[in-house]
Amino acid sequence: MLMATDRIVGIDLGTTNSLVAFMQGESPVVIPGEDGLNLVPSVVALGERDQIIVGNAAHKYLIETPERAVYSIKRLMGRGLEDIREELKLFPFHLAEDLQTGEVLRITLGEKTFTPPEISAFILRQLKRNAERFFNAPVTKAVITVPAYFNDAQRQATKDAGRIAGLEVLRLVNEPTAASLAYGLDKKQNGIVAVYDLGGGTFDISILKLHDGIFEVIATNGDTHLGGDDIDNLLIKIAIDDIRGDFGLDVSRNGEAVATIRKAVIEAKIALSSQPATKLDIDLLDMELPQGKRYQREITRAQFEQLIQPIIDRTVGPCKQALKDAGLKPQQIDEVVLVGGSTRIPKVRALVEELFQRKPHTGLNPDEVVALGAAVQANILGGGSEATENMLLLDVTPLSLGIEVAGGVTDKIILRNSTIPASATQYYTTQIDGQANVAIHVLQGERELAKDCRSLARFDLKGIPPMAAGMPRIEVKFLIDANGILHVSAREQRSGKESEIEVQPSYGLTDDQVESMILDSFDYAEEDFRQRQVIEARNEADTILAALEKGKNGPAWGQLTSDEKKKIAKFEKALVQVKEKDDHPAIRKAIDLLNQGTMRLAELMMDTAVSTALKGKTMYEADTGDGTETGHPVAKADFQ
Amino acid sequence: MPVDYFTFFGLPRKLNLDIALLEREFYDLSRKLHPDLCARADKREQEWSLEQSSLLNDAYRTLKDPIRRTEYLLRLEGVELEEQSKTATEKARATGEIKKQVVPPDLLEEVFELNMQLEELRMQKKLGEDDPALIEEIGKQKLELEQKHESLSEELKTYWGDWDVLPDNATEENRRKVRDKMVDLLNHRNYIRNLVRDVSDVLEG
Q: Which residues of A fall within a CB distance of 8 Å from B5?
């Protein structure tokens, strides 16, 4: 058995759904949530008592109180106000009103505001909790996947989310690469593999060389704002236009209506992957429409395919570029692996087949394979096992790293598709006598002008020893680590002095901000913990009440005195009443009383050896006796 | 002072390289140095691994590519290649300075002609006109330039041979002769590459 601290989970923090997985023996498995489902929808809502609700339970808030719920938050990770104009037109993100340009985004849920990393942290915390429930032990370390085409700011934001959720992020792994690990573990074959990953909000294409356990990414490309969401938005727009035409009603500002339509079009989209036609049938009763009117429309697959063509065509350019960068022709690809829910769409499969001139491999569950791969990587980082022995991932940086030079031009110092870790060294000097500071503007992107690239950060080299202009020779080392995140260090060579670097991230949280969010998150951890204690106490109460019900129908019941029966009835009534309150110590107390009151009944049931009743007794004892509640590690893990 | 990339791989400073062998060596070293293998080690060991594996990757990336390998070796030999580089071109373009860029003599006439045609096409595009014959003509020239670019890469390999057979005690003059040939060729090649890019910009712009 591994030490609890060594249990590293793999997390797929998706736009639409998130999953947590781990390596069980020789194969990776997904850890289900309390509801038994593997997929946790990436939806976060603020409940009536300002409690945080995540996943399936948060879904209803999207429709009932859309201003208190948020989905697809991944689209906003590591982005600034000026990058998301398009997003805001299509997604019901409620930005904080006092938001300033250059500030990290904040989303309003009810009366509260949260940054995208904090909202992602709520999802991560739910996954962490699911894993802890599963292991009945703390989970504090994780591998989290990110789209391969995520830039430095988006990666940093994901890492921050992990920290806020109380997870040490041992590695960020690119999603298509993670998928290839799961694929390779299964196949154990050498060759060139292309992973086409079209998810809810992002598209990646990665081309890898698999060679005796080495997974070497040769080229990657993508679009971090392209996915199933775009298809949904297109269909929503059509429905809204139709409703305007048919009923003269503009529902585009009605959050509840849009959420209802969104749910319906997603169902239609999914249906069209297996059916030639489907019907949109949306009840508009609640939308101040003429009574009893419904919005109905039939969509055939042909129509659907025509509609989405422009969206899925946007994946072609990145695929061609990746092939070109890899120096490969489509025929040289041995296998194309499909990942992401949107690759279930037949038209997408057809497009991939045409692009790569071969039938894609569809044997993997496109929703789960990334999480499974993350679990494989987690296992490798944890020291490996027989299954992962010899497996090593060599990934690349998706975007070129550059620095701004005279005239606003980008000087590229680490080219895209360089294997990471990768580094570059640049030398700087001063322009005027005694100059003590030098500013460096670091960019990411392929464009020639700095203004067209993504600004990563401005580094201020400080404390340069006073010298004549041009005399200092400051060596600056840029290093992209295995997570794809940039580190910068500087040294003045003549004095040998380490220069102090002040970093102003262009789109990210400072360390202090993250620290304060970690502190804030404890409030939620406590609130969550309290909520969960209530739920668990309630579940336990139900188990006992059900067991009692069975006991009453058994032969043992008849052997009790009427006094005993009266006492049991009293305790039962008390438990039923207190069970509905959010007061878990009271529920616990009522359970204990009923427990004591039914002691003799349980003994009698054991004696009569009625098998069903025995089961009740065992269950009952296990529920009260194994200490899940007091011994649960969540709070402790979070407070570490 | 960090070791140079050739030394890192235990290779002499020669330009003909067994790429398959280099790749094998790269994989073997990756299995020893990659940060994934040190995730449980202490911070110092992790930093060492990060440093070493980035050096390994930088070295492999540079040496496996024929042009980058040649440029790297020339730089080690003290040659400054910036003048014809893309960066220099872009800097010059952005600042509006005229870059000292020597047109290779054999291309003089061709480049002159091409620049005229490009200028014409730019004008036409501005006016929203379209001259398929001109576009076709420029496209043809672009193709020729690309072929020349390709053939120069082949020619470079003959100079590699000249370099590799130099004895360790070769005179500085003999070394310089081979170096200069390579520098000339690379400049020539870069010039064509920039030209092709300019043509593409106009055609697509």
A: none
The secondary element (H helix, E strand) that includes residue A580 is none
A74 in active site: yes
A55 and A174 co-located in one domain: yes
Apex A474 CA angle, A469 and A480, nearest 5: 145
Instruction: Inspect the interface and report whether the beta carbons of B50 and A422 lie closer than 8 Å.
Output: no
Confidence at residue A385, expressed as pLDDT on a 0 to 100 scale: 85
Domains and CATH numbers, chain B: 5-64 (1.10.287.110), 85-204 (no CATH)
Verify whether residue A320 is a known catalytic residue: no
User: What letters, b where the CB count within 10 A reaches 16 and e where it falls short, cover A365-376?
Assistant: ebbbbbbbbbbb
Q: Do A421 and B50 touch (CB under 8 A)?
A: yes
**Using the beta-carbon criterion (under 8 Å), do B36 and A479 form an inter-chain contact?**
no
Q: Can you give the pLDDT at residue A453?
A: 85
Would the CB atoms of A423 and B36 count as touching at under 8 Å?
Answer: no
Sign of the C-alpha dihedral, residues B19, B21, B23, B26? negative
A498 and A620, same domain (yes or no): no
Q: Do A406 and B91 touch (CB under 8 A)?
A: yes
* Distance separating alpha carbons of residues A158 and A149, to the nearest angstrom: 13
Active-site residue, selected from the candidate residues A118, A160, A197, A395: A197
Annotated catalytic, A159?
no
Angle, CA of A194, A197 and A198, to the nearest 5° = 145
Peptide bond into B132 cis (omega under 30): no
Contacts of A477 (CB under 8 A, 6+ apart): A423, A424, A425, A488, A489, A490
Give residue-wise pLDDT tens across range A572-624: 999 998 888 878 888 888 888 888 888 888 888 777 654 444 444 433 443 33
Model confidence, pTM = 0.80
Q: Is A432 exposed, middle or buried (0-12, 13-18, 19+ CB in 10 A)?
A: exposed
Beta strands in A228-361 (DSSP E): 277-283, 294-300, 335-339
One-letter amino acid of A11: I
The number of folded domains in chain A is 4
Which of A74, A269, A347, A617 is labelled catalytic?
A74
A197 is catalytic: yes
Average pLDDT of the residues of chain A: 85
Answer whether A10's CB lies under 8 Å from A372's CB. Answer: yes
What CA–CA distance (Å, rounded) separates A583 from A581? 5
**Beta strand extents in A454-537 (DSSP E only):** 454-462, 474-480, 486-492, 497-498, 500-505
Same structural domain for residues A137 and A285? no
- Domain containing residue A252: 228-312
Cβ-proximal residues to A362 (8 Å cutoff; 6+ apart), any chain: A338, A343, A349
Say how far apart CA A615 and CA B179 lie, in whole Å: 87
> Which of A210, A394, A401, A486 to mutate against chain B (most B CBs within 10 Å)?
A394
Residue A241: what residue type? D
Chain B partners of A380 at a C-beta cutoff of 8 Å? 36
